[in-house]
Amino acid sequence: MAPLALLPRGLINKSNWCYINATLQALIACSPFVHLVKSLERFTGRKHEESTTPIMDSVIEFIDQFEVIPVRIGKERASAKKEEPHFGTSFEPSSIYKMLSKIRSETFKVEGRQEDAEEFLSCLLNGLHDEMIDIVKATNLPVGKTPVQAGEVKPCTSDDEDWQVIGPKNRGCVTHITTYSKTPISNLFLGQMRSALHYAGAQSTATLQPFFSLQLDIQNEKVNSVRDALACLVSKEPLTGYICPKSGQEVEASRQTTLEELPPILILHLKCFVYDKSGGCQKLMKRVDFSSDLELSKDFLSPNQKSKLKEKQRQYKLFAVVYHDGKEATKGHYVTEVHHSGTGSWLRFDDSIVRVVETQPFKYNLPRMPYLLLYRKLNV
Question: Which residue range or ranges hold the USP domain (predicted)?
Answer without folding.
Answer: 9-378
